[in-house]
Design goal:
65% helix, mainly alpha, two-stranded antiparallel ribbon, Arc Repressor Mutant, subunit A, 145 residues
Length: 145
């Protein structure tokens, strides 16, 4: 592909990053104002909740989460310290540790979601029509292929 980088592409790139940062900042502020943990906690807890009792290896969590994998190990340590997750030796391979969500972790995750979803709606959901969301999804899928 020998297409030259256009000014339109550069501006779209900048706007995409600006929108991403601003939307995440609004979610983080809403969570903080509600006295809830940061969004990264929800991201990890949700993926563990989806796995039920099977749990996930740390690298599997990293592959699934939406947010940055940076400091995932420390985040899991904090979740464990707060009794939101537990580590267990894998039955199939004793060298492997799997992480599971606790009942308390599920409770925290369920407290975070209403604030998170309200922030998504207020800062994103009301901005576009349904057809525009579908078009945005289509465009982003194209970029991610």
């Amino acid at each position: 592909m020998d297409k030259k980088l256009t000014e339109e592409a550069i501006q779209a790139w900048i706007q995409l990053h600006y929108a991403h940062r601003r939307l995440l900042e609004s979610v983080e502020k809403a969570l903080k104002d509600a006295g809830l943990p940061p969004l990264g906690w929800y991201d990890v807890l949700l993926e563990l909740h989806r796995e039920k009792s099977a749990g996930l290896r740390q690298y599997e969590i990293g592959e699934k989460i939406l947010l940055s994998k940076h400091n995932l190990s420390r985040l899991i340590d904090r979740l464990e310290k707060n009794k939101l997750v537990t580590r267990h030796t894998c039955k199939e391979d004793g060298r492997v540790t799997k992480i599971r969500i606790t009942d308390e972790g599920v409770k925290v995750m369920k407290k975070i979601w209403p604030v998170y979803s309200r922030s998504i709606q207020e800062n994103f959901g009301v901005k576009l029509a349904s057809s525009e969301f579908l078009e945005l999804q289509k465009m982003l899928k194209k970029v991610l292929v």
